[in-house]
Amino acid sequence: MKRILIVDDNKIFIDTLYAELNKNKTLTTNFLIDKIEFNNKNSAEYIYNNLSDIDILLLDLQMPEVSGLDILEYIKSSKYRPKIIILTAEYVMLSGLMLENLNISGIFIKPFDAKKLIKQIITISDEITRKRVYDEISEILSKFEFNKTSIGYKYIMECIYLCVKNDSLMSPVEKNLYPTVAKKYSVPSTKKVKWSIAKTLKSMSTYTKQDILNEFFKSQTITAKMFIYEIYSIVRKKLENG
Q1: 74-to-66, 68, 79, 203 alpha-carbon distances in Å
Q2: CA–CA separation, 65 vs 71, rounded Å?
Q3: CA gap 235, 193 in Å, rounded
Q4: If residue 5 lies in a helix (H) or strand (E), which one and from where to where?
Q5: Which of 107, 133, 181, 193 has the smallest count of CB within 10 Å of its CB?
Q6: Residue 168 has what DSSP assignment?
Q7: What DSSP character marks residue 170?
Q8: Would you report the helix, strand and coil content of the chain in percent, each value rounded to 5?
Q9: Is the dihedral of CA 118, 124, 127, 128 positive or negative?
Q10: What is the H or E stretch that residue 85 is in?
Q11: pLDDT of amino acid 97
C-alpha cells in the first residue's frame, strides 16, 4: 500500500490534517496515512531512513534545527524520490524554494482548503499508479521483439493499463476497450486501433523467439485479446503481490 507522511512542527496542524485525510475513503483505501511532529534532527533522520517507504511527503518548510529546504536538498541526492507537496505559511522560504528549481508536485499556503489538497493528492496518486503499472507492463513486454516506436505498441500498452484499472473493458474488447483507447488518443476510428495492434502483434510474433512465445502462450496463433489478457493477468498478479 502507498504511504503518505505528514511532516510539520505544529502538533495541532498535524492532527487536524491527519483527521481530514482519514475522512476520505479514496485516500484511506489506497494509502497508509502517517504523521510525524518534527522537532529536531532525529525527526529528519527518521524521514531520511524511511524515504523508500514514502510515496507522498506533505512537508512544512519552517521547522526547528533542520528546515524543509534541508530535507528537500537531501532528497535531491537520494535514489528515493517521493512526490512532495509543500505546506507552508513562509513566503520568504517559498521564494527561495522556487529559485532552487526543485521538483515539487504542489504548494499550499496555510491556511488552505483541505479538500483541494486531497484532490491534489488523488491526482498524484493516479500518476504514481500509472507509472508503476506502465513500468510493470514495459518490463514484461521487453521479453518480446516489439517495435517500441510504433503506434500499435502504444495502443497495446494502454489497453493493458486500462484493463488493470478496469477489467470489465476486456469483454468485449472491440466494443469496450478499443473505443476507450481511440477516444484517449483522438483516433476517429476504432478499426484503426484494432488494425495497428494486429499489425504490431504480427511483427512481434515473427521476430520473437519461439521459446519465449511458448512460455506465455499455448496457441501458435496469438490474437490481440489473448495477448492483452495474458499480460494483464501477469501484471495484475504482480501488483497484488506487492
Answers
A1: 11, 10, 10, 46
A2: 11
A3: 22
A4: strand 2-8
A5: 107
A6: G
A7: G
A8: 60, 10, 25
A9: negative
A10: strand 83-88
A11: 61
